[in-house]
Structures are given as C-alpha cells and as structure tokens.
From TrEMBL:
Transmembrane segments: none
Residue intervals of the GAF domain: 37-143
InterPro entries: FRMsr_CS, GAF, GAF-like_dom_sf, Phosphatase_reg/MetRdx
Family, similarity comment: Belongs to the free Met sulfoxide reductase family.
Protein name (database record): GAF domain-containing protein
Length: 152
C-alpha cells in the first residue's frame, strides 16, 4: 500500500469517528474499516488493558484469544514496551501466541490516552512479511486519529 492510500484511509477513519465518543463503538467500526480496506488480512481488532492484562475487545475475524498477559506474545510485548511491533514471521517470534494457526505475520500498535496505555490494535495476515514500513507509518497515523477522536 502507498502513503496516498493510507492518507485516504485516514480521512475515512476520521469521518467515521467524528462525534463518536464510545470506545467500543469506535473500535468496532475502526477494525471493520481496516478489515474491509486492507488486503491479505485474517484478523483485525483490539485488546484492551484491564487489570494488568490484555482483554479481547472489538474485532473482525475468527474466534480469538480472550486474555493475554503483558509481555506475552506480540500483543503483550507491544503493550509492555509501549511500542509498535511489526513481525514478518510470527513463527520466529519467541513466545508467539497462536490464536489462529493461519496467521503468519502481524503488526501491533499501542493505543494511548496521554501517557496511559488503553489498548493495542492487533492486525494479522496469513501472508509472511505482509506489513512494511509504509504500512506501519500509515497504521500508526490511523491509531493517532482514533486516539484524538476518543481521548482529546
């Protein structure tokens, strides 16, 4: 995907989120937008930080892991380190949690309110090395729009 693609997608996300302050509703439509727009995905959704663990939130895809400990798997690592994790081959990631055996690559982006972690956006693909730097920057900008809509 190109940066122009992500700029257009970001404008769509901003329009979708405008005036919506409910976390679940916003995350549900946000994950649906990404799932419907990006190619080669098999899971898009959120894990919310609750009681020092990640708990399944709104998503698009097959049945998923319900709870993930901080520091466990790609999602837990991204949450613990508070940074984006882009993994070309999840089977090479130490401690990977295989919620869906069809997933081969993954990107996980923290969702913040100020300095506090609220959730992570988790996107999986059956394709190895699906996510590149352009995807990472574009998706991080989408998450910034989500944060601004919900927490500013």
């Amino acid at each position: 995907m190109s940066s122009d693609f992500y700029q257009t997608l970001n404008r769509q996300a901003q329009a979708l989120l405008q005036g919506e302050d409910d976390l679940v509703a916003a995350m549900a439509n946000f994950s649906a937008l990404i799932n419907d727009t990006l190619e080669d995905l098999n899971w898009v959704g959120f894990y919310l930080l609750k009681n020092e663990q990640l708990v399944l939130g709104p998503f698009q895809g097959k049945v998923a892991c319900t709870r993930i400990a901080l520091g466990q798997g790609v999602c837990g690592s991204a949450a613990l380190e508070n940074k984006t994790f882009r993994v070309a081959d999840v089977h090479q990631f130490s401690g990977h949690i295989a919620c869906d055996a069809a997933s081969n690559s993954e990107i996980v982006i923290p969702v913040m309110s100020g300095n506090s972690l609220i959730a992570v956006l988790d996107i999986d693909s059956p394709k190895l090395d699906r996510f590149n730097e352009i995807d990472q920057i574009g998706l991080e900008n989408l998450v910034l729009s989500l944060e601004k809509a919900l927490f500013d």
